[in-house]
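Kindly draft a sequence, keeping tokens residue-aligned:
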Amino acid sequence: MSNNDQIQNALVMLIEGFEEFQTALEIKHLGTAVDEDTAIEELPADKLEQMDEEFHQAMLLTFENLGAENKVDFRDIGAVATILLDTVEEVAPDLFQDEDLDDLGDDSDGSGDSGSADDGNDLNSKTSVQDEAAV
């Protein structure tokens, strides 16, 4: 198996694992799995907070186990996460658009570009994507 195939398989397993855990949390806290037709804003905020907290705690435990049991260095996790985010931003830049901040720029020419070389959206957008991914 090639290196690319191994990475692709690992990413598929990671995403499937997150989805399965998310579904289990939804069933546990909401009594049913959430689908694409569910209006998230109509779900009980306290239940969503409980799910977020439980997901966060599970991730902390996972990272602790990676370090202790598998001798994975957190710098390696950070490097992989950075590479993944940078690559996703390159292949799907629309995922990193922050609609609230887009309205702040001067778009007098209608191009969608504020004219600034660095409009500061990268950090905020990456954070919001990471937060959404944790849900």
